[in-house]
Amino acid sequence: MDMDLDHIVRQVEKYGDLGRALEPPGTQRQALFAKVQGYADRFLDRIGSLKAYETDGHEKCEADGMFEPQEEGGDLDRLLDHLALRVDGPGLNPASGGHLGYIPGGGVPAAAWGDLLAAITNRYAGVFYSSPGAVRMENAMVRWSARLVGYPENAGGCLLSGGSMANLTAVATARSAMGLKGRDLERAVVYLTHHAHHSLHKALRITGLGECIVRYVPMDHRYRMRADALRDMIGADERDGLRPFLLIANAGSTDVGAVDPLDELASVAAKHGVWYHVDAAYGGYFLLTDHGRSVMVGIHRADSLVMDPHKGLFLPYGTGIVLLKDIRHLMAAHGYQAHYMQDTRERAFEPSPAELSPELSKHFRGLRMWLPLKLHGVAPFRACLEEKLWLARYFRHRVAAIGFATGPEPDLSVVHFRLETPEADPEVINRDIARAVVKDGRVFISTTLLDGRFTLRFAALSFRTHREQVDVLLEQLELLARAAATGSGAQPVH
Length: 494
Hints:
7-stranded mixed sheet, alpha/beta, 4-stranded antiparallel sheet, Aspartate Aminotransferase, domain 2, globular, 16 helices, Aspartate Aminotransferase, domain 1, 2 domains
């Protein structure tokens, strides 16, 4: 039996009135936004004095009612206090110029303004029909990045959530473009080094390529793939009746920032008909510099590659790009047809990102990239990257003078180093040094294993990292090295 219309109307009005709480009136909205802006301004004003890593306060992050939604709304001041104390306090502060571990990026304020506008206007940047301006903006960012690489006009790609999703998209595209079927997997061979990012192993597994044969190509003393070894391995596999399928190279490895000999590897891949993918998530935007272009000669020969604007362009986390030399491969691998989307095909004057990746629903990421680049121009981004290249060399010279063993001159902005002293076990003392630096908190460094040895890492990429932050680290390391030499061990130094 149908409900009474009057009852239906009363329910509509009742719940409509309650739901309007999500749309505060202008004066209330302005007052609330002023508090949010004030929080952001205070954070940025204090960023130079905040620790890069805060060891205290982890117990404050235990789950309770302040993390879980409640039926009734709360006071914004109290919520912002919770954010400051329990989210923006403990742990790693990626916005700090003292973040010298992992691969830091930053988060330029103009990118946050772009995100704010993108979230408020909520343009759907997945399909050209829905928002031609948003799609054109994102495609323009892709084309600009492709020109940096040296790709031809028929190249293309899309903005994704980061290097992991970009690598996944590229691997899936390689599988499609090479016509790899399930029956081929046990004979198909993938070539990479032990310094390939773990997201690529995940991508192989997720795309159903986990049954492929994986060959780890030997590296030289600079941790770069050896083209001669690759050539020999592919030749041997072909003679054994296997199918060389995919070559994955690094343009800035995570561990040491190494750039493989991209041009030589491209020649090997071309000769044997192997799909050539370059992981330039970290190193790609160093192409803005003369040095970056010199160490990445041949990158334009890759069939696919990834770049992370949230690294080399200092954008907030969640910004990656996949690029294909021929966009048709991307369309063939990720295109779709759906009846409810039939209207969108009537006006499609540019490729739609939703047809170029696994994503359909997606954030309008282009605005966070476009606004900073247009507002500031490219020049200061290039200058920041140049500064980081020189800071890495400055750090390497200074830390070696203190007594640390260092690797070769870095390809980009990562330096690996290690204290080796007869007074203590190197494994123990370097672990102690890492803990002491992190506990002090003014700067943050990370560690890795190289040739089975515990090794310290310096990674300069944040736009807020300058010589003063590097000098703070050097002062700590000098004190810690002296303590190790006297046998007193590494202790916090501040």
